Amino acid sequence: MNPTNQEVTDFIEALKEPWQKELSAGLREVIHQAIPEVSERIQYKKPHFLKNGKYAAVISTSKDAVSFTIFNASDLQLPEGMFDGPPERKTLKLRKGETFDSGLLVPLVVQASTAL
Asked: For residue range 94-103, what is the model confidence (pLDDT) as tens digits?
């Protein structure tokens, strides 16, 4: 597993809502499973995940949601109604009490990041 970035760890630990911490940590785990060579950094006050210096994914939080954006998503076959955004970057928005299926997300991130 890749070295994690302390700033990203601090960002997740600083989230006030336990459900946001849990979702963010889980999504980070998905990215690491999908992109073993991923690098992490905080940019625009949120965790960005890069492969070969290019954006692969971003986790962002708002008051009532955790959003997970996959970049380079134009060729992905996505479940109907689950993601929104322009073709090149798709966002999954999770609210309190919702979960995600890492068995679904990991292959999507792998596929999206293959060309990076």
From this structure: 999 999 999 9
